[in-house]
Each structure stands twice: as structure tokens, then as C-alpha cells.
Amino acid sequence: EALLGMGGARLFPGADARWLKGAAREPRDFKLEAEGREMTLKAEAMPLRDEEGDVMGSVILAEAISETEDGEFQKKIDRLVSLGELSAYVAHEIRNPLTGIRTTVQFVGSKFKARDPRRGDLEDVIKELDRIEQIITGLLMFARPPAARPQPCDLHQVLEKTLAMIELQLGDAQVVLHRDWAEDLPLVYADADLTQQVFLNLCLNAIQAMPEGGEFRAATGVRRYRTRRSMVDISFSDTGVGIPRDLIEKIFDPFFTTRSTGTGLGLPISVQIMREVGGVITAKNNPGGGATFRVSFPIPAEPPGRPEE
After folding, report:
1. Start and end of every Histidine kinase domain (predicted)?
2. What's the CA gap between 160 and 151, in Å, rounded?
3. What are the structural domains, with CATH classification, of the chain?
4. Structure confidence by residue, pLDDT tens digits, 1-48
């Protein structure tokens, strides 16, 4: 009730005229004070048209985000930003000398005969340097993720491209793929390339969680609500080992990994990509074993046009 009668400038501080008129329909977060407490509104504007199609105003749909949940999440995001800045500095400082080390190792290796056992030792050094380079690339990706370019996106198309990419891995791992597509899945605003990166990371994680083979299910669906924004859900389920109960709260933390060859950056990067489009990633263990990761996209208030092929 404290928000009733409040002017638009106070309700949506910093919003530009183009967004208020519904010309820019991406969701935005606004912080304001009401009844002596801070709250966050997640809002989206859409144009209001008359019978002839002319714009006569705009409608803004907003929902209040839980102060406790939002505050804790924002603290985590702030910590990720600080950690990302440090990661970028460290990655830059390490990458330069690594180049010199690699060049020297390769030069020394070229001086040995083909059957000299020392060549094998140097090749092992090169492999470890490659692993460090992979970690550095992940650090930079986490610190400075590419800017998202949201546009109308058909998630089924992105899913099919992703599943085609892992076809060989599924066969080698003896994992059976199941598709469960919802009919008439709404379009969402997302960056198709970055979304594919998120899907690919979750698919590969699922395969690696089933070293003895198993079943992998990709499913789509819609959750509709009357009082808050509806969501499009993309779920990835496996029949693997599941997530230990004491670790499920840590899996989205940067650098946390249970694999000896992992960097612990795949999920944090995916979380950042989804945050850019107002989406979320959640994880849970399945009652019968294995785990399910759910990627959720907000459904736009006004249906977007068809995506470009």
C-alpha cells in the first residue's frame, strides 16, 4: 500500500524515457524505500496501443523481490565482481611469463633426438602449461564475460544445436539421451550464443557425472503465475552420483570443483550469463538418484518477434 500514489520517477529511479514508454522491453531492477525498509522491484515496460495500433501510453509490470533473498544474492554478486577483478589481474600477470616458458620448453625439446626420453618429460610440461592456459582463459571469462546481446530466442533451436555438439560424447560415455519438449514454448529474450554456452556446460557436467553410463534427459516447460512473472524452464537431468548434501550450496561458488581437472568456473560463468537476462539456475538431487539443473528464463510481457535464422 505504501507504493500507491507514488510517482513514476520515485518508483523507477534512473529509468530513461525510452524504457518507460515500453520501447526497450528488457527487465530491470529498481531499489526503493517503502515503510522504512528497502525493497527491489523487478519491472518490465510494454507499450499500450489503441485500436488503430498507435501508442497511447505504457504499462509497467513489476514484482517485489524478497529483501532477504535479494540482499544475500546481491552480496554474493558483489563478492563475485570483486573476485572477478582480482582474477583478471592475476590472469594477466600469469599469462605473460607463461608464453616465455612455453617458448623455452619447446626450444629445448627441439634439441633432443626423437627417441630421447627427456622429450617425453618436456611434453608433459607442455600439457601442464596447456592446463594452466585453460584456467587463465576461464578466469578472464569469469572476470570479463562477453556482453550479452539479448534478442528474440527460440530455446528449442539452441537446445538442438547443443545436443548435436555432444552426440559423440554421449556415445562414448554410453549415455542415452531423452528429449521432453513442451509444445508452443514461448520465445524469450536471450543471447543465443551465450545461452548455448550455458546449456553446453550443464550437458557436459551431466555426462561427467555418469562415468559408468546412464540416462540424460533434456526437458522444456513453462511455469505460469497470476501474481508474478511466468518462466520458461530448461531442465537437464542425469542418473549419476548426484550432489552431496553438504556441497549443494557451494557448487555455484567460483573455483569450487570436485574434479581434479576442473577449474570451478563453468557454473559461476553460467550464473552470470543468466543474470544478464533476468534468469536463474537452480540445482537439486533427484529422488531416484542423480541431479537436475534447471535454467529459467522470464517470459516477456509482450511476445517478441521471431528470431533471425
Report:
1. 89-301
2. 18
3. 8-65 (no CATH), 71-143 (1.10.287), 151-298 (3.30.565.10)
4. 555 666 666 667 777 777 776 666 677 777 766 555 566 777 777 777
